[in-house]
Amino acid sequence: MLCKKCNREGTLVIRKVFFFCDACFIANIIHKFRACIGKNTKFTNDNKSLICLSGDISSTVLLDLVMNGINLNTHKKLRISPVFLHVTGILSTDDSVCNLIMDQCKKYNVDLISMNISSMITEYKDYYEADSSVKNNNFRLPTINNLVNKISPSAEKDFSSRIKQKVFYKVAKDLECNSIFTSETNTKLSAKLLSNIVMGRGSQIENDIGFADCRDKDVKLFRPMRDITDEELNHYVRIRHLSSVDKSVSEINLQSLIANFISDLEINSPATISTICKTADKISSADDNSGKPCQICQNNLKTKVDKLTATDATAFSKVVSSGEYQASLLTEDIESVTKMEVFPHIFEELCYSCSKNYYEFKTNIGLH
Ligand SMILES: [Zn+2]
Ligand SMILES: [Zn+2]
Fold it and tell me: For residue 64, what are the domain limits?
């Protein structure tokens, strides 16, 4: 079959339909990356940008695309000063991953900043304890040691990914970067969209899945690989001879189940994936991001609406099924009683989903 761009012999096929030769395929990926940045008016040139690397295949391609972009001498040159960051995981520091990313950076002759996420969690704990308004509320984040294996794997995954994002923002601000690049692909974002809905983060889809997360007024987070799929990444690293870490360890949590479902879908029904992400573009919440942010995930805290919400219903059934429900509560403000029991700090310090996670910390490790 012939390459769809230049009519020479095709060497690979995308989505079982589109044939490319190697050169046209690479040009097409570079174009997608640049177009994603270029068409977005929220991105201004001459940024100092924090590029977040994890060593996996998408991070490897992001690094290559960024370096390719800034080394161009044409009008298409990517005008950013990149700073490269690697945040090591919540459970362990895997030296082989650190070494691989360091080697990758050496190859492009750039420096790498490496740090462990747990240092950040301790810092946040101190921050919360020092904040008197929060202290009065008895709101405290769990430390890293009492977090692991004590809450459900899905909540832990959700929590650690939110904290990782906070680390990105903290480092960006410390280093005076005004933007952050992360390497989520179309495939990853499709899975994240479905996970968001399952975890009760439907209202956060616009900022969590879209090209730009503009919740922070000083630092914008961009996802420039949003139009590239995992299938395309595999061809890209093969053609460019790039090496990456295989992170396909099987985890047992909701997010991994959804990710597996999405990767099966990508193999068997590839057109569906782009439809999922396009749907996300159409779901934009009415939030204006001007309210108080959640202390963990930065999402805008919803103010109380008069209608009975799904949160009210969940709170009520949790209290009733826990056996703590007393008839006397009927005479009190049922709403505030149920919320305090099962949704700690909801709408005051935490959003619905973070409050739900916090309830697990609270019951399992004795926080208040
Ligand atoms: Zn071609
Ligand atoms: Zn939150």
Answer: 23-287
